[in-house]
Amino acid sequence: MTKDYIIDIQHLSKSFGDVKVLDDINFYVRRGEFITLLGPSGCGKTTLLRQIAGFIAPDEGRILLEGKDISGIPPHKRPLNTVFQRYALFPHLDVFDNVAFGLKLHKIPAKEIEQRVKKMLKMVSMTDYEDRSVDSLSGGQQQRVAIARALVNYPKVLLLDEPLAALDLKMRKDMQLELKEIHRKMGITFIYVTHDQEEALTLSDTIVVMNEGRIQQIGTPTDIYNEPVNSFVADFIGESTILNGTMICDRKVEFMGHEFECVDEGFGENVPVDVVVRPEDVVISSDVEGSQFSGVVESCIFKGVHYEMFVDTDKGYELMVQDYDSFEPGSKVGLSINPDDIQVMRKERTCNTIEATVEDQEHVSMLGCTWECSVPAEFKSGDEVLAEVAFDKVDLLDNQEDGKLGGEVHFLLYKGDHYHLTILTDDGDHLWVDTDDIWDKGDLVGIDILPSDIKIKRKNG
Amino acid sequence: MKKLFAKCYIWLLLAMLYAPLLFIAVFSFTESRVLGSWTGFSTKLYQNLFTGNVSGGAALISAVENTLLIALIAAAFSTLLGTVAAIGIFNLKGRAKRTMQFLNNIPMINPDIITGVSLFLLFVFLKFSQGYVTVVLAHITFCTPYVVLSVMPKLSQMNPNIYEAALDLGATPGQALWKVLVPELRPGMISGFMMAFTMSLDDFAVTFFTRGTIGLDTLSTYIYADARKGGLTPELRPLMTLIFLLVLVLLIIINLRSSRTKNVIE
């Protein structure tokens, strides 16, 4: 079956210096597919695309094109073409010669070159621009020429590196439609890189969501939107409220202080989970009695098509709701969520688990410094152990110097009644913290943990 | 009043700068052997210069030929070396890049006399027989940094992806260099070439120390020797005027080119 995969990426890894940019990437691309690599800046998506194009060699792993390993082949011998973010047209050549560049290198007869270039310029609606210098074109026109220049070679795969990022919103929307149309007409496989989740949802057959050098989820746009596998994907794609919950039993989940029916099974009983609620899936009405729970509208903003409201629920959570009707701030409303609109996700972790080394019965070393705690008698100096610290037992301090070690707020997630922060320590370790205080991404913090909150456990294996 | 004063100042300054040149140019149109005495307007010296009817004429003509040939060869080689060096330095990162740029600037501010003496010592140490080749090598040495300096801004203006775009479209690294990079850098290379040409043209100190004892003369060493013999050959006056005009034209072209590229960017 692998014969139908035009690109097959196997165990690809890449580091720049000490930083692991790509960590064991695996996925395949079907022939003719429009696949999008989606993620925030710095997630490794462009590095991945540049490895497929051949500009960067992978440290480990293979890239198969139609079953053949192309990892060692230089870019000019790969039957792939790239559309660059900033167009990268050749300024000393006119539009025609830019598009003809690849064909001339391949020694195609002049007559055929002319035919193919003209046909391709027609496809991107740039027919009358053949003799124009590329500097005289607008951004959108330059990008059309860049697309024609790549596609005129009939590549097996077209690689697009955020091709629309430099265009204004209106132009971007138009170009999205045109790209989709070109993809349909040409039948060439597209691998598209973007950080714009809306663009990815609009264009793609398949989306690969990436973060910090790892693939988070692969799926169709509807899969990714409706069934995010973790809180990163849920938060990154579309609007959502992510809440802590408990799976009571199959088809029954508790969150925001209420029990809800849901459609998920197989989590086990009384298992902590993350619950995703999309704001458009919350049914809001003035009928308080007939609803699952109630709340008070806190704010209401008109967003063009719908209203976006924040509602304080009866058990003290904050929930984002989108509806075509508006409700006055201060009014009491009834809220309900349908069972199949509740997305339940297994938690990636329920507390911080940190590798530590026992120093003596009162001290362990972890995260690059020594911590006071009580070490059970079964461990002795030098033992490798695991230290567990609950999310809400990590103290964050305004001043980096006041903490035992310093760190930076790397990622934050609002969970309805508290924030769940990912802290990157100065040594590059991750800590996850639940807090009621408001922090911003990039804030520098001091980190402290009380001795009684560090639980020492045996390391498995 | 204040404005008038400021204007007078700048004209006075320019007059002092250009008076000597003007002096030579004016006295190139009179026949007098002694510089400074006007014996009536004449183009005789120009005629003598072009018909070769000069005292010690053959030596002067060969000095002019040497000067131009050395300047051409040195400018051509330093353009090649300087462009390659600029691409290399441009692709370095951070500290290494800054260090290389700094090292490139030193030879330009280093006094010529020191460059000349140290090259002389180097050639003696390496047992090079000094002559034409050593002069050309020396000129390439001090011209190359100027080319690096004029190619570098072209590299930073260039879209960093166009080299990769050429590879992506099937060009070998050599083809990408020749078909995409060189056309992009050409304005900088031409400015660099002209800069190198003028630097080589007016060099005295480095040539003097590296020409050896075979009697090789460029224009500047010829004039120096001629002046020491007692009195300049009168035909040097029109020659110097012509060279000044040549350099002036080159400078104007360089300036026009750089202002034009600036306009395109804006």
Task: For the structure shown, list the relevant keywords.
heterodimer; A: 461 residues; alpha+beta; Rossmann fold; six-stranded mixed β-sheet; five-stranded antiparallel β-sheet; 8 helices; globular; B: 266 residues; mainly alpha
Q: What is the secondary structure topology, with strand pairs?
A:
The complex is a heterodimer of chains A (461) and B (266).
Chain A: E1 5-16, E2 19-30, E3 34-38, H1 45-53, E4 60-65, E5 68-69, E6 80-83, H2 95-105, H3 110-123, H4 139-151, E7 157-161, H5 169-186, E8 189-194, H6 197-203, E9 206-211, E10 214-219, H7 221-226, H8 231-236, E11 241-249, E12 252-255, E13 258-261, E14 271-277, E15 282-285, E16 293-302, E17 307-313, E18 318-323, E19 332-337, E20 342-346, E21 352-360, E22 363-366, E23 369-372, E24 384-389, E25 394-397, E26 405-414, E27 419-425, E28 430-435, E29 444-449, E30 455-458
Chain B: H1 2-27, H2 44-51, H3 57-90, H4 94-109, H5 112-125, H6 132-157, H7 162-168, H8 173-201, H9 205-210, H10 219-228, H11 236-265
Helix pairs in contact in B: 1-11, 3-6, 3-8, 3-10, 4-6, 6-8, 7-8, 8-11
- Please state roughly what percent of the residues of chain B sit in beta strands, choosing from under 5%, 5-15%, 15-25%, 25-35%, 35-45% or over 45%: under 5%
Number of helices of chain A: 8
CATH topology of the largest domain in chain A: Rossmann fold
Largest sheet of chain B: none
Q: How far apart, in Å, are the first and last alpha carbons of chain A? A: 38 Å
Largest sheet of chain A: 6 strands, mixed
Q: For this structure, what is the CATH homologous superfamily of the largest domain in chain A?
A: P-loop containing nucleotide triphosphate hydrolases
Cα-based radius of gyration of chain B, to the nearest Å: 22 Å
H-E string of chain B: HHHHHHHHHHH
Helix content of chain A: 10-25%
Low-confidence stretches of chain A: none
Q: Please mark out the parts of chain B with pLDDT under 50 across 5 or more consecutive residues, or reply none.
A: none
The tally of strands of chain B reads 0
Structural class of chain B: mainly alpha
Q: Beta-strand percentage of chain A?
A: 35-45%
Largest interface: A-B, 27 and 20 residues
Q: What separation lies between the terminal Cα atoms of chain B?
A: 37 Å
